[in-house]
Amino acid sequence: MSETAPSQHREVLRLAVPAFLALVAEPLFLLTDAAIVGRLGVAPLAGLGVASAVLLTAANVFVFLAYGTTAVVARQLGAGSLPGALSAGIDGTWLGIGLGAVTAGAVALVADPVCRLFGASEAALEQAVTYLRISALGIPAMLVVLATTGVLRGLQDTRTPLLAAVGGFGLNIALNVWFVHGLGWGIAGSAWGTVIAQTGMAAALVVVLVRYAGRSAVPLRAHPGRVLAAARGGIPLLVRTLALRAVLLLTTWVAAGLGDVPLAAYQVTATIWTFLAFALDALAIAAQAITGKALGAGELERTREATALVLRWGVVVGIVLGVLVLLLRPVIGPLFTPDPAVQAAIAGGLVVVALGQPLSGFVFVIDGVLIGAGDGRWLAWGMLATLVAYLPVVYAVHAAGDWLLEGGTTEGQVNALTWLWIAFTVFMAVRATLMWARVRTDRWMVTGASR
Fold this sequence. Notes:
Order of helices and strands: HHHHHHHHHHHHHHHHHH
Largest sheet: none
Helix content: over 70%
Low-confidence stretches: none
Number of helices: 18
Distance between the termini: 27 Å
Structural class: mainly alpha
Mean pLDDT: 83
Number of strands: 0
């Protein structure tokens, strides 16, 4: 193993570094929105927290378009079938277009009643509905980005998604500042800027995929039977993602019940947690691509070695990120809001976020390994079990809300948000335990071009 370890380290870095820079584009979009909208006041920032939770749920339930496609394409590539890999990727992209159009219409239609479910104030609700209805227009582009990015990762190309993400992030900043503050459009300007940037990213990635297909003489037309097969294959990952999004929505619901200040602070801390999650997910992306390719080629020993390696990377990178958050904690709050109470709550919540990063690194890497292996059915059941375990924990924070808030004092608001993040860390610990038990077995390692 010592002879192969250096090459494995290089392979992980070759895939993970560009993937990291591309993955952080989405949370950077949200961080940019939060920083720009936060200058408009507490209500717009709280409204952004509600709208972002709904929007990310609507888009990320289809994350199998990226993760599932990466695994399928990597297996086909490992088995020596580049045309088969590209055909699977094209089918996934068509599926993303169809799902995106339907989802966008549904989200725009039910934006008001869905946002009301969170129980935020009327001022925050108005801001949330405005942002969500406009942002729904970008959902098709978001799903196309997921699908095409999954294809390219499966082809071991993480550089192209990076270039698209850098361009999209730069455009997003420029448009948001111009629309929100230059033109005075408020939170609507932030939504329009993000929609335009996401659409540009999607168009660029589709052009690259078309060029790949042209070089291999792979047709671009949709195959309804194969598209439906791709949809069926994504059902376990869809269930897994729905359960995860239920956890995140429940947490946002509890934050909304604590008041506008804790909700605004939760929006910022949750966005930072998402940023860190996507950073750690870069290692999971590398694990997906390496695992899928190795199992497609029938290399069980290489799969085991790569799994052990990326797990070590995940924990170490998690420690580094946690330390950085603790060091930067005093200056993060003022970047997003001038409100002292919100700043204090952000600082308190970030302590727990930072301490949980090594655990997050461990969880995300194993998640990537199992997705790359096509172990979707177990991931679905495992996440459902974790959701059930989380329900009493998060409800306890909700039930103790008045006691934690201590009459609405700043100290009480800090304590309430801190305990909410402690509850979420319990969820991550349960998830880690179940996943570790699974990865220690051999049942997830199935070889061949398809699982």
